[in-house]
Design a protein that fits this description.
By secondary structure, the chain is of the alpha+beta class. 34% of the residues lie in helices and 22% in strands.
């Protein structure tokens, strides 16, 4: 049977194989060309890249648009999740706000009923954190307030929520603050509700340990730690943090202040507590001064042998 010369199948197969061979040779030549380490070849590659890449923007436009569309959809999903979290957090914050307002009103009523007189000297000055020490062996920051603002060494500093440290050096325009986490920091504290007294000792870690605790069995994780005011350096009642236990079982303090974001610090002006003077009027306001007689030697009984 004679072969039909007009049958297209007789030319499709060889032509396809020829095109595949040419394509393979072209790809191999491009691979070899891109692997040659020569200055001339490098210049040639640069010219080819400069000529072809700008002209392929139209070809990459659909791919770029698809990628941007996928990124926008992912961003929309993240925004939707964050919106739901913020709505939930807002509901929780509204609940806390109502509770805080009720507590504030109750506190004001109690203060009025008990005629509590607050210390008018306990004011504060706010400073901006200029720099930190940047050393693992010394935890301190530098404030832009100093002697011109009346600062005195030993005054407490807070970040608005919890105790941060104390003033350890005062210049004319700056002051150095030793943080609670510093190894040289020792803060007398009271643990509530048990009333146990202890020392918050810094050890250059984020959670300083508790030392000299009277009865550790009465302390539980989550208890509130505040300053005790012992020594007359810090005022009493400043929030330090909460009790936590490390993997070794040692009690530590999870600090209330955010030491990762110290931008502004509040320095409390605390001039110490007034000493009780030897004044008979303190004992009895209605007793006249002339009626208060000092004890004589005859009134003191002699010790028996």
């Amino acid at each position: 049977m004679a072969r039909d010369r007009h049958n297209p199948n007789d030319y499709t197969g060889p032509l396809r194989r020829l095109l595949l061979a040419v394509l393979a040779l072209l790809l191999a030549a491009i691979f070899i060309l891109w692997r040659i380490d020569s200055p001339r070849v490098e210049r040639f590659r640069a010219q080819v890249t400069d000529s072809l890449v700008p002209n392929l923007d139209w070809a990459m436009a659909p791919v770029t648009g698809t990628i941007n569309l996928l990124r926008g959809y992912q961003s929309y999903q993240r925004l939707s999740e964050q919106n739901q979290e913020l709505r939930s957090e807002l509901r929780r914050m509204q609940t806390w706000k109502e509770a805080a307002l009720q507590l504030e009103q109750e506190n004001a009523r109690l203060l009025d009923l008990n005629k509590v007189r607050l210390d008018p000297r306990l004011t504060y000055v706010t400073g901006v954190v200029l720099a930190d020490s940047g050393s693992p062996f010394r935890q301190s920051v530098l404030l832009n307030v100093g002697a011109r603002d009346g600062l005195v060494e030993g005054w407490a500093t807070m970040d608005g929520i919890g105790l941060v440290g104390r003033i350890s050096g005062v210049g004319d325009n700056t002051a150095r603050v030793i943080l609670l986490t510093d190894a040289s920091s020792r803060i007398p504290a009271v643990i509530q509700p048990s009333g146990q007294r202890a020392i918050v000792a810094g050890d250059n870690s984020a959670a300083p340990p508790i030392d000299f605790l009277e009865n550790p069995e009465l302390v539980r994780p989550g208890d509130r730690v505040i300053s005790s005011g012992d020594g007359g350096v810090f005022p009493a009642g400043l929030l330090i943090g909460q009790i936590a236990a490390d993997p070794g079982g040692r009690l530590r303090v999870r600090l209330a202040a955010d030491f990762e974001r110290l931008e502004f610090l509040r320095v409390l002006r605390h001039h110490g507590t007034d000493a009780v003077v030897n004044d008979p009027s303190v004992i009895s306001q209605n007793t006249p001064m002339e009626d208060v007689q000092p004890a004589s030697d005859a009134d003191i009984p002699e010790p028996s042998e």
